[in-house]
Amino acid sequence: MNHAFCWINQNAAGLTAIFTFLYLIATILIFNEARKSADAATKAAKAASDSADLMRQQIEDQATLRKTAVHTGVDEALKTTGDWRGKTGTSQT
Predict the structure, then answer these.
(1) What share of the chain in percent tops pLDDT 70?
(2) 85: which of 14, 51, 73, 90 fits an S-S bond (Cβ 3.0–4.6 Å)?
(3) What was the pLDDT predicted at 14?
(4) Looking at residue 4, what DSSP letter applies?
(5) Residue 91, helix vs strand vs coil
(6) Are 38 and 45 within 8 A, CB to CB?
(7) CA 29, CA 75: separation in Å to the nearest integer?
(8) 20 vs 10: CA distance, rounded Å
(9) What is the model's pLDDT at position 83?
(10) Cβ distance 92 to 82 under 8 Å?
């Protein structure tokens, strides 16, 4: 057992260099994964923004369609009422 401690003590500089190198490799791998995660988050945020823009556009389009449908319905009702009044001889005032 004492022999192992002596060996470690004699090779401390080399072991420190090896463990420092392993720590560097682990840090690089962690950094790469963090970068991938950040890239994925950026893509997800862009997709969410695009989705919100599309939803806003669809809501605006639907509002325009509803407004057009209401105007068309009112115009048709007024026309039908005018036609009916014309056929029955009722005044339009």
Answers:
(1) 95
(2) 90
(3) 94
(4) H
(5) coil
(6) no
(7) 69
(8) 17
(9) 85
(10) yes
Residues in the chain: 93
The residue with tokens 């490799």 is 25
Q: Copy the structure tokens of residue 64.
A: 């325009």
Q: 92 with 85: CB under 8 angstroms?
A: yes
Q: Please count the CA atoms within 13 angstroms of the CA of 16 that sit on its side-chain side.
A: 5
Amino acid identity at 67: K
Q: How far apart are the C-alpha atoms of 71 and 73, rounded to whole Å?
A: 5
Q: Which two tokens stand for residue 63?
A: 């509002």
Per-residue pLDDT tens digits for 6-25: 888 899 999 999 999 999 99
Query: Is the predicted pLDDT of residue 92 greater than 80, yes or no?
Result: no
Q: Which helix (H) or strand (E) holds 93?
A: none
Residue 58 CA to residue 48 CA, distance in Å, equals 15
Burial of 57 (0-12, 13-18, 19+ CB in 10 A): exposed
